[in-house]
Amino acid sequence: MSQDSAGAVGTRLTPHVDGLIRAAQAGDQDAFEQLVRTYDQSVLRLAMNLLRSPEDARDVYQEAFLRVYRNLHSFRFDCSFHTWLYRIVTNICLDQLRKRKVRKEEPSMVETSEGPLDRMDAFEEESAHADPERSFWNRELKQRIETALDDLTPRERMVFELRHYQGLRLRNIGEMLGTTEEAAKNCLFRATQKMRSVLGDFT
Amino acid sequence: MMCDDIAKLIPLYYYGELTPDEEDQVEEHTHECTTCSSAMEQQRTLAAALDRRVHEVPSYLLEDCRADLMAAVHGGAARAARPRPSQGPWSLFLEALAHSFGNFNQLQKPIGAVALIAIGFFGARLTMGVRTPGGTVNENSVFGAEDPYHTVRSVQPDPEHAGAVVITFDETRRRQTRGSMEDPNIQQLLVAAAHEDNAAVRVESVDILKNQVRSSEVRDALVNLLAQDPNDGVRLKAMEGLRGMANDPSVRRVLLHVVRADGNTAVKMQAIDILSANRDDAFVGLMQALVQREPNDSVRLKMEKALREANASAGIF
User: Fold this and answer.
1) Could you tell me which chain B residue has the CA closest to the CA of A199?
2) What is the mean pLDDT of residues B265-278?
């Protein structure tokens, strides 16, 4: 499971980050750039894992940090900057996921050779020589995992992503998504149930 | 607790989201109940399967995103914290007026030996009476206090005076001003013209401005145009002007952005040329990242040449 990396970095770097925020609020573009670099890898990873497309991830990155740039003056230090940033990022990602639901996008884009690199591809390649049956099994599993994730509602998908892959605490996730910890718990439970029912044979 | 209650807690148990008391209850129950114990095992297997599914961020993407973002920020992304005096392409001009046109009425003084610029200014979308930072109002500006709107129609080199320029613009009442191209105020007019809606006017203005890059405002305007102008000709001319300044960080940043993201082959190739003549690690790294996936043969050949000149491998990525 992913470590609580983003949150831990955010906590450890608080005094440093606060200084950068204040400087950026005063118009220092270098400070803004440093602030971006403190958080942008985890933002990009989140967008990439959720949307599975470098182009979409790039759009999320650009829109999120431009919103940060435009609205940084309104950040009042009443929550952590990480939480504030992720409110913006998750909103943009949720919009994207909702648009996809409307378009009923097929997960075929996952399969394009130009598309995102996937660890499981490498895993398949390796095992293909050793055990074709296992390779088939892995490909099937991968397909089913994507289907299972696609079947979640955008909100369930987001809560699951933030908890499982980004390692954030549910209380924090609730804060980011403008809901309670209890609601985030229910979301995580529903997401897990749905995935277990889709992936039951495989897991 | 009943099995149904425990089932609800199993994912939370796995993710460490229960209180110590709840954890104890789950552990106690699963120890004795085979159904729930197998549900717990399923949860672990599910999580392990999901752990193997990670979409990795392609190596080039982070740097691309950073460069695009900073180009947008340096190129003048609007900040809500500092509202601009007006919307649209004239905002830059108005801002420049507010910052540096405290002595704007100097434009009206006769200028002697220097090459002259005849400017007919019409119909501006330019609000007069701009407040300077000191709070004074430029009532005596060249535009006249009662003419609120101007539109630049053409910008031409002056055929009669070498090194001079003729700018024509619409106004309800046409007026003229004269000034050397070295005059920062005239340069500001040119910068404004470089943001006109009419692409032809932009090309003409940038063609003249590109010889004035010593002025930081002109340089910033050219950087801005190179990053954002939709017209290929404008971007090419802006780049010509910036050619000699490839070591300036903001110029460098926008040139790297062009190589990465500009849709026009000629613009892209010229940027590669300039950066190749002033190469650094960032440029070589970018070439290596892009060369294999560049669809255009000419651009790819140029990238390969740049890499050869830098004694760098084209095959690393």
Assistant:
1) B46
2) 89
pLDDT digits (tens, 9 = 90+) for B273-313: 999 888 888 888 888 888 888 888 888 888 988 888 888 77
Residue B137 banded pLDDT, cuts 50, 70, 90: very low
What is the rounded CA–CA span in Å between residue B295 and residue A52? 23
Find all residues with CB under 8 Å of B263, minimum gap 6, and list them.
none
**Chain B CB contacts of A58 below 8 Å:** 61, 64-65, 68
Domain A5-105+152-199, CATH among 1.20.210.10, 1.10.510.10, 1.10.1740.10, 1.10.150.450 = 1.10.1740.10
The domain limits of chain B are 3-51, 57-82+234-317, 85-212
Touching B: A residues 170-189, CB under 8 Å: 170, 185, 188-189
Interface test with A, best of B26, B51, B69 (most A CBs within 10 A): B69
User: Phi then psi for B152, rounded to 5 degrees?
Assistant: -75, 130
- Taking an 8 Å cut-off on Cβ atoms, the answer to whether B52 and A61 are in contact is no
Q: How many of the other CB atoms lie within 10 Å of CB of A9?
A: 16
Helix (H, G, I), strand (E, B) or coil at A82: helix
pTM of whole model > 0.90? no
